[in-house]
């Protein structure tokens, strides 16, 4: 069996396989074919892949020869036309937003697996790409905010006077939010955190942040680790609480997303206009609309002296480690669909295989994607 690794389109910098992963592919009797320069933006040269046992080839050859094709981002129509009939494609395809595209792929007989749809269970933790990449995003978001902020993060006592610590507000205490808390704390900031899930309060406080509670949140315990939509009444109470904290904050990191839905608006234009001049908002939910009314994806908007940075590509700013973690997530998942003889084995009795599979046998198999159509 051949696993093909494609070079990602700009501005993506990550790659699905690094040379250090190839020993495990060999163990499973799988040949790896890597597109020329696929690892260049992750600081890996082709000769390193060859030394580790892979082969390099043109994009056309990878597409035409591979039984499983790895690509973080969706394929072009031209790429799809060159794939083997019945090929497996695996990446981060956001099928709830790209349902029409997935339907087109299904009609061409492809077996589509979107790793961002894997059920968030204990067994799936080693394959959870959303968590591994969000961890990096939370870390980088704080550094990005600190770089833009015109003051220190920590408290300083100097002969010329004292500098108070920066006040950081983090909206959302998922993987990205928790890493943001830890990073901001290491830099010396004073931190407040909002989340609709009371269960995360203990984790937030253990990292040295203050947890701001809003009563009446919808139960998210059965949402598989994802946030859930809230009632209008709760959202109004939450916005009132957030407005108080936003007005005091120097840096705001927003991370709130709901799988398959537009990101909730947590910060209004009026709240932004009440912030201090020079304050910074880093919105890492920008690709799904953002958590502020003024967020623009991949842009920095300055409004009333406040910088609103819309960025959902922070993991790519650490392409080497992001690729290392992503590649290991993918490798762990592939071991569920490849047997020890190197043959494809799609066991749909396995809840992780079934949950990640979006299209099979010329039809969409995921009920939520069907509903999105």
Topology (elements, then pairings):
Layout: E1 2-5, H1 22-27, E2 31-35, H2 46-51, E3 55-57, H3 59-65, E4 68-70, H4 77-82, E5 88-91, H5 99-107, E6 111-114, H6 129-148, E7 156-158, E8 161-163, E9 167-171, H7 175-186, E10 190-194, H8 201-206, E11 210-212, H9 232-248, E12 251-254, H10 269-273, E13 280-283, E14 300-303, E15 306-310, H11 319-337, H12 351-356, E16 357-360, E17 363-364, H13 367-372
Parallel strand pairs: 1-2, 1-4, 2-3, 4-5, 5-6, 9-10, 9-12, 10-11, 12-13, 13-15
Antiparallel strand pairs: 6-16, 7-8, 14-15, 16-17
Helix pairs in contact: 6-7, 6-11
Walk me through the structure.
- The chain has helices at 22-27, 46-51, 59-65, 77-82, 99-107, 129-148, 175-186, 201-206, 232-248, 269-273, 319-337, 351-356, 367-372, and strands at residues 2-5, 31-35, 55-57, 68-70, 88-91, 111-114, 156-158, 161-163, 167-171, 190-194, 210-212, 251-254, 280-283, 300-303, 306-310, 357-360, 363-364.
- The chain is an alpha/beta fold and 373 residues long.
- Strand 16 (357-360) and strand 17 (363-364) form a beta hairpin.
- Helix 6 packs parallel to helix 7 and helix 6 (129-148) runs antiparallel to helix 11 (319-337).
- The model has no long low-confidence stretch (mean pLDDT 94).
Give the gist of this structure.
The chain is α/β, with parallel strands linked by helices and 373 residues long. Helices cover 34% and strands 17% of the residues.
Which descriptors apply to this entry?
alpha/beta, 7-stranded mixed β-sheet, 13 helices, globular, 373 residues
């Amino acid at each position: 069996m051949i696993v093909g690794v494609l070079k990602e389109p700009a501005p993506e910098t990550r790659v699905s396989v690094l040379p250090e992963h190839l020993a495990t592919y060999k163990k499973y009797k799988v040949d790896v074919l890597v597109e020329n320069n696929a690892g260049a933006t992750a600081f890996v040269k082709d000769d390193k892949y060859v030394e580790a046992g892979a082969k390099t080839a043109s994009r056309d050859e990878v597409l035409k020869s591979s039984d499983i094709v790895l690509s973080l981002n969706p394929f072009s129509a031209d790429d799809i036309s060159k794939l083997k009939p019945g090929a497996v494609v695996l990446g981060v395809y956001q099928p709830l937003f790209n349902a029409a595209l997935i339907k087109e792929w299904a009609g061409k007989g492809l077996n589509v697996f979107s790793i961002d749809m894997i059920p968030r269970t204990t067994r799936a933790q080693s394959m959870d790409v959303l968590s591994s990449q969000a961890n990096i995003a939370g870390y980088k978001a704080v550094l990005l905010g600190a770089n833009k902020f015109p003051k220190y993060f920590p408290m300083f006592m100097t002969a010329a006077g004292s500098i108070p610590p920066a006040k950081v507000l983090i909206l959302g205490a998922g993987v990205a939010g928790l890493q943001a808390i830890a990073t901001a704390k290491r830099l010396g900031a004073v931190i407040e955190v909002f989340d609709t899930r009371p269960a995360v309060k203990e984790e937030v406080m253990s990292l040295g942040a203050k947890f701001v509670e809003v009563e009446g949140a919808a139960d998210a315990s059965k949402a598989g680790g994802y946030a859930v939509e809230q009632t209008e009444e709760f959202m109004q109470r939450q916005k009132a609480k957030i407005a108080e904290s936003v007005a005091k904050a120097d840096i705001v990191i927003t991370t709130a997303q709901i799988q398959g839905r537009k990101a909730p608006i947590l910060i209004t234009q009026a709240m932004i206009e009440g912030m201090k001049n020079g304050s910074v908002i880093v919105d890492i939910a920008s690709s799904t609309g953002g958590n502020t009314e003024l967020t623009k994806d991949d842009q920095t908007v300055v409004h009333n002296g406040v910088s609103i940075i819309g960025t959902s590509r922070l993991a790519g700013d650490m392409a080497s480690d992001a690729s290392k973690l992503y590649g290991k997530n993918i490798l762990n998942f592939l071991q569920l669909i490849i047997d020890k003889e190197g043959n494809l084995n799609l066991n749909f009795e396995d809840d992780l295989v079934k949950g990640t599979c979006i299209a099979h046998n010329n039809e969409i198999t995921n009920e939520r994607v069907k509903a999105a159509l």
